[in-house]
Amino acid sequence: MAEKIKLSVDGILALESSFIKVPYEQLKKANRKAQKFTEKELSNLASGVADLAKGKGSGAKDPVKALDAMIERMNKLKRKLDELKAEETMYAGKLAARLSHLQDLAHIRTLTAPEFAAWAHLRLQRVLLDYLMRQGFLTSAKLLATGSSSHSASDASGSVMNLAAASAAAEPMAVDTDPTPAPASQVPAPHPVAGLVQFADLEFFTHQRRIERALERHSCTEALAWCHDNKVALKKLKSHLEFNLRLQEFIELARTRQLVPALEYAKTHLVAFADLGHTRAIQQAMALMAFPPTTTCEPYRTLYDSDRRWTALAAQFRADNFALHCLPPLSALEATLQAGLAALKTAQCGGKHEDRSINCPVCVPDTFAVLAEKLPLGHHVNSCYVCRISGEIMDEDNPPLVTPEGYVYSRKAVHEMAAKNNGFFRCPRTHSIFKVAQMKKMFLT
Amino acid sequence: MDAIAPEFDKFVARHHAYVDETSAGLDGLIATLRAARDQLAGTDQDAGAKKAALAMLSLDVKGQTSKIMDTTKDISSALAKCGKAIDKKFGTADLEWNPQAFEGKDHLIRQLIGEHFIREGKFELASTFQKESGLSAAPAKNSQFQELNDIIESIRHHDLGPAIEWAESKRFELNRIDSTLQFDLHKQRYLQLLADAGPRSPGLMAAIEYARKYFSQFPACIREIQPLMLAAIYAGQPTAPATYRTLLARATSPTAWSNLERQFARDFCSLLGLSPDAPLYTAITVGTTALPIIMKMSTIMKEKRNEWTASNELPVEVPLAPRHQFHSVFACPVSREQGTDLNPPMMLPCGHTICNESLKRISKNGSIRFKCPYCPQDTTMAQALRVYL
Ligand SMILES: [Zn+2]
Ligand SMILES: [Zn+2]
Ligand SMILES: [Zn+2]
């Protein structure tokens, strides 16, 4: 019946950047931290010992004490490295699981393969997880990722109705044609959600949330530390975040009229940005010292507008953090949902009751139907006839029959009903009754 | 992907070595420092010897630290290579083609997520999510979903007991929808018993006893029952004919189990008047293949500065699996237009169907007899019948 529709693997993979990049960037960060720390400590040690040998430096008077201190530092380095290595191993594990999940797709040839249904189900779980984390629903995200609740634990392999989504109807004999039946010893029922923890970027989003919270509390410290950690990447991004954070700290000093510290702050932290195109903003900031927070004079009033500026800072931080990790502004859940609903949407969706289908998501009132309102309809080059009675696709084996009133049903459904009703067919839409012989075959075009 | 895997494997292998080597390296370094310290702390050494010991130590430390540094740099460069391969394959992904579509509808997305968790029987998650996301009302808990999910879970663990029990209790309803579920469950259970028994006769007798007890309830399935009973002869025999080997293999075949699982979900939901797949799952599965096609089109359109999201139809076809085609769609073979209420499909007496606009054009508004574009039969506009798909 249905020809096998080939799966475009590369197209799907192209949309998965952040799925790979988030753990990779975190792995890189942990690794860089370890490298820097090691470098610093080891070179300090080497020069310290060299000084001792030459009888130079502060430790020369008591080399034993100096060596004790060095041993202590090395122990500290070792502990710190152990932590970072564990972190690296964790992110490498996530990366491995994700690469292999994406690799699985390469072995799936068609849209109708049971493996694709299982793969798509796992993808649904992880885009849901991603949505929950983006929205800051971290408790729910954790619960979904670990399935730690009592019921969810037993349900850890996810949803049921979908998972099996192997198209039983399309290929009922699949098993009989299976050339290599699995030996009795291995029962590889796929348990996709077992790997969901590896697909959750909880550390990433928790960290992001912590910095956002700090900004909500009007503290720049955490965000500035984050800027420091990502200096190179932010520069590449031409981010203004660090400057705006510095500016904010300056504004807060001006607000409380601590003018001397404000001036000092400007000298140490703002002037450096003058070359980076912020000269005007710095001039404005300096002038701010002449205006009290109650001023109505622009642009100083706006600069003192606390709520707006802090909200903007949080948004800017979030955008930069997303950009650094290739996280698109729109969540994969929403983007995929838009595409899926548009592809499924037909003129009949959500229309008259008889036109709706219980299987069609776009026909679900109040939620999906409303979401699909502003989406275009799917485009179809070929006709597709779905029987209103059986829901089956009509094709050469089960062609459409037309009642004298013009209503179309599949031959199978018509004959089944007629067999139970002495050869009569009752149209479910008009309730008229016909003999099967009165119905006409329609050509598939 | 093919370029990333080898680089990543290399990194992982090196990382193991790195973890061990730096650890051992630091231990060695600490031991060296300790030994030197103890030597210096000793009282039996003169100043000259102490000085010599420090010089030795300095040399030693230099050697050891540079070795650790080399390992550290090594792992970083392996990681960087991996990063290059990743950057090459994964650029910045743009997922937006219709930015206004969901504007102001966040609450609906939350609502359907909550309903989805219920649908999957994840009730605790659903209520946690409701509280955390501020959903006004908890989606109604439906104990039937719990039952469904519990049964499916046991099928997944190859335990058919709960499914058979449920099917028995719904015997009448299942018959009404012409479901073969009950028989198919018993069949799988029987094959399972055969597989467990192997060629041993006590187990075999149990399987045959099972068949005797239950298969007799399904006289209509006699054509299927015969080969099943014959299969008992071949249980546990690797030399069995292919037909029986594959039949017996069903007991452990993942495809057979997943088909059964789906069949169960379909019939269960059918009795409830629900779709067998959760709507969110269907929409996201379709979207997974649709999104790249739409994004590609959108990029091309943007380059040509064509605004198309406002138009009422996607400019490109997204292939749908048959089980995702829920509504009939008429595409006129003449004009390629999709049928609408204003331009409905019209069937000619020969059985060929074209759209009303095309019909008007070909028949010059009904003024002439014309030949069907797809067969030799000629006809008039008045003879055409409007069809409702
Ligand atoms: Zn619909
Ligand atoms: Zn036409
Ligand atoms: Zn014709």
Explain this structure to me?
The complex is a heterodimer of chains A (445) and B (389). With 445 residues, chain A is mostly helical. Chain A folds into four domains: 9-170, no CATH class; 204-322, no CATH class; 332-371, no CATH class; 386-441, Zinc/RING finger domain, C3HC4 (zinc finger) (Herpes Virus-1, 2-Layer Sandwich). Chain A has helices at residues 9-14, 17-54, 63-106, 114-134, 138-146, 150-154, 160-163, 174-177, 202-216, 221-229, 231-236, 241-255, 259-270, 279-288, 300-304, 306-324, 332-344, 368-371, 411-420; strands at 377-379, 400-402, 408-410, 424-426, 433-435, 440-441. Chain A has a three-stranded antiparallel β-sheet with strand order 3-2-6. In chain A, strands 4-5 form a two-stranded antiparallel ribbon. In chain A, a hairpin with a 6-residue loop joins strand 4 (424-426) and strand 5. Chain B is mainly α. Chain B has four domains: 4-88; 115-156, no CATH class; 158-272; 327-389, 2-Layer Sandwich (Herpes Virus-1). Chain B is 61% helix and 4% strand. Chain B is built from 14 helices and six strands. Chain B has a three-stranded antiparallel β-sheet. A two-stranded antiparallel ribbon of chain B has the order 4-5. Chain B is extended and about 125 Å long. Chain B starts with a helix and ends with a strand. The mean pLDDT of chain B is 89. Classes of the chains: A mainly alpha (445), B mainly alpha (389). At the A-B interface, helix 1, helix 2, helix 3, helix 4 and helix 5 of A face helix 1, helix 2, helix 3, helix 4 and helix 5 of B. Strand 1 of chain A pairs parallel with strand 1 (313-317) of chain B. One zinc ion binds at residues 346, 349, 357, 360, 362-363 of chain A. Chain B: One of its GO terms (biological process) is proteasome-mediated ubiquitin-dependent protein catabolic process. Chain B: InterPro entries: CTLH/CRA, CTLH_C, Fyv10_fam, LisH, Rmd5_dRing, ZF_RING_GID, Znf-RING_euk, Znf_RING. Chain B: A zinc finger (RING-Gid-type) spans 332-375.
